[in-house]
Amino acid sequence: xxxxxxxxxxxxxxxxxxxxxxxxxxxLGATANQATELWRCLYRRFQTDxxxxxxxxxxxxxxxxxxxxxxxxxxxxxxxxxxxxxTKVLFRLEDGKTIEAALMLFNNQxxxxxxxxxxxxxxxxxxxxxxxxxxxxxxxxRNLSPGEIVAQLLYFIRRxxxxxxxxxxxxxxxxxxxxxxxxxxxxxxxxxxVRSAIDIIGSPKGLNMGLRQITLSTAxxxxxxxxxxxxxxxxxLALSLHAATDELRQQLVPLTRKYPLQxxxxxxxxxxxxxxxxxxxxxxLFNGINDSPEDADKLIELxxxxxxxxxxxxCNITPGKNGFGPSPVEKAHAFQKRLIAGGIxxxxxxxxxxxxxxxCGQLKSRxxxxx
Length: 371
What we know:
Elements: E1 11-12, H1 18-27, H2 32-43, H3 58-67, E2 68-69, E3 74-80, E4 86-92, E5 98-106, E6 115-119, E7 123-125, H4 134-138, E8 140-143, H5 146-166, E9 178-181, H6 191-202, E10 214-218, H7 222-231, E11 236-240, H8 246-252, H9 261-275, E12 279-285, H10 293-303, E13 310-314, H11 329-341, E14 346-348, H12 362-369
Parallel strand pairs: 1-2, 6-9, 9-10, 10-11, 11-12, 12-13, 13-14
Antiparallel strand pairs: 3-4, 4-5, 5-6, 7-8
Helix pairs in contact: 1-2, 5-6, 7-9, 10-11
C-alpha cells in the first residue's frame, strides 16, 4: 500500500502539519515551493511513493527516500451493509495493534447534497469505559499518531477515487466530504495528536476540509473542551451525553464521576459563547434505561431551550453489553416529539450498519472472538 523503510529513525511525513513538514524538508535543502509541492503530492494526489513525486526534483526525491516514510495501514477485514451505504474496516497498525474506521454514504439529504463521511479512530481502545460501548469493554492500549489518524481518511479517499475511475465518470465523486472523530477512543484524551490531524485535514493546500466538515465527538473532558474553545480549533463539537442526571450518566459514562453534568454543560455553554458554534448533543436511546417521558423532561431542564441541537440515535446491539438494547421506533418518536414540544431541536437519526456490527469496536471484538 505504501513505500516505507524499516528504519525507525525515518520521519513519518503524515505525522507533520504543513508548517512542520516545511521545516523538515528545509533541513534537506528544499525550498518553500518544494514543500508545498510535497504537501500536494500527499494530500491532493494521495501518493505514497517518492518515485512518483516527479515534481519535487530527483535530488529531493532521493533525500526523502533516505530520511522519510509514510504510515502503513494493513486491511484485515471489511464489512459492507446490505444497503451498500456503510463500509466498516479493520486495520492492523505497524506494531500489530488494530483499529476500526468506516465510510458512510448519505444520498439526497433534502437539499440535494450528497455526503461521504469517514469515521476515524483516535486511539487503540478507549480509556473512558462506557458500559454500552464495545470499544470501552476492550480497555485502552495507546494513542494514535496524527499520521495514523489521517491515514484512515486517506484510505477511503483513495478507495472512492478508484471507484470513480472504474465508473468512468468525470465527476469528483471520490472526494470524502466529511470526517468525524467518532471511532475508537476519546479524541480529547489524545488532544495534541488529534489537533495536529485536524490541522492536516483542514489545510487549504491539501484536503481543505472546513470546520463544518470536521466533527469531534467527546464523552465530556471539561478542561480539553475549554482548551478547544481557547484555541478555536476548526471543527464542530459533539457531546456524547446519553443521560440527563449524574446518577444515570455515571452508570453509562464513568467520566461523569470526574466531570458532573452541571460542570460539563457549563463548559459547553462557554465553548458556544467563545466560538459562536453550537455543541451538538448525541443521545443514544437505550430501551427502558434513558428513553422515558421523564428522561425527556429532565433533558429539557438540563439543556434549556434552543441551546443544544440533539441527535437521537437508537443504539447498536453489542453482544455482552449487559442488556443495552435500542428503543422501539414508536418510543423513540415519542421521545423526540416531547423534546421538540419542550423547545429543543431534536433529530432522530437512523443507526447505520447494524447488520455488519458497525457500532464502535464491534468489528474488532468479533475478530478477537474468532481467533
